[in-house]
Specification:
The protein has 306 residues and is an alpha+beta fold. The chain contains 15 helices and seven strands. A seven-stranded mixed β-sheet has the order 1-4-5-6-7-2-3. The longest helix is centred in the N-terminal third of the chain and has 24 residues.
Length: 306
């Protein structure tokens, strides 16, 4: 068995597993690299005994991600404010090295936010069972618990997800239309137009990682969100829109703004429902953006997504 061939053959799958579990591409890539290292340290006899390399690597990545999830949960206790996954940013599917992940895995920001409500064991059990169809016997080994406990973790996760399921992915044309209209209304400072673009029950969630100014709580309601957006426009002026660029965020249409003058850099993704914007997820955390935004995009301005 070729170690290099095995890890490369399954890399996209494993990164998808790691990202869904941790919400961090960096953590996912680290977990995959560590899984490869552990595989490489096995003797030839031990490697020959692995009948399902993909399954073996998946469980190793899952254990590593469980450790990262628990560490992240401890870190978040000292941070006041919403927490969003690290965005996957590109200007088109063609130039996205993770195009397969974004297309084939349900890693839309809305879906990832729902997963973030789960405890570490619940999240691991849910992803492994409901997304990857791993049996509970294997999941119990990852979680170091009984089969019954693993089943219970997945069941509780399923209930949490069912209570607030993300809306289905909107058609690309509807996403582009909403994005174009939003940008136009922001440039004109048109409150009425912004309110009409937003769903009455829309939410705005921003994650600064405690490193830049951002709303510490979820903002709910079309008018409140519209006034917040116009308030940011008034506060930062032209610098907010000078570097504005349409991008794909986790496979859906969104935009990059700021990064010029006093305006903090942000990547914002959207959820569109019934033709209106139902959610805006804005990531301002410099640590997350430094990994998420490609260098070529940092030099781009006013990019239009095809």
């Amino acid at each position: 068995m070729s170690i290099t061939l095995d890890i490369e053959e399954h890399r996209a799958h494993l990164i998808g597993v790691g990202y869904r579990m941790t919400g961090s591409l960096a953590d996912a890539e680290d977990a995959v690299q560590e899984a490869w290292f552990r595989l490489s340290r096995l003797s030839d006899q031990q490697r020959a005994a692995i009948l399902d390399p993909r399954g073996w690597l998946t469980t190793v990545v899952a254990r590593l991600c469980l450790d990262r999830l628990r560490s992240a949960a401890v870190r978040r206790e000292s941070y006041l404010g919403p927490w969003l996954p690290e965005p996957l940013v590109s200007t088109s599917e063609a130039d996205d090295p993770l195009a397969v992940l974004v297309r084939d895995e349900d890693v839309r920001m809305a879906a990832m936010v729902v997963l973030d409500r789960l405890s570490p064991p619940q999240r691991v059990a849910f992803v492994l069972h409901d997304a990857l169809a791993l049996p509970y016997a294997e999941i119990s080994q990852v979680l170091s618990c009984t089969v019954a406990a693993a089943r219970q973790h997945a069941s509780r996760a399923r209930r949490v997800v069912a209570e607030a399921p993300p809306p289905p992915r909107a058609e690309p044309a509807d996403q582009r239309r909403a994005l174009t209209d939003l940008a136009d209304a922001l440039r004109r400072g048109d409150l009425r137009a912004l309110v009409s673009l937003l769903h009455p029950d829309a939410v705005f969630i921003s994650d600064s990682g405690g490193m830049t100014p951002a709303a510490r709580r979820t903002v709910a309601g079309a008018e409140k969100i519209a006034r917040l957006l116009l308030g940011l426009r008034e506060r930062y002026g032209a610098s907010l829109m000078e570097n504005w660029a349409a991008v794909l965020v986790n496979g859906e249409h969104g935009y990059r703004s700021g990064g010029q003058g006093d305006a903090p850099e942000a990547v914002t993704s959207m959820t569109v429902r019934d033709g209106r914007i139902a959610a805006l997820y804005s990531v301002l955390s410099p640590a997350k953006l430094s990994r998420a935004i490609p260098r070529t995009l940092r030099r781009a301005s006013n990019v239009v997504v095809d």
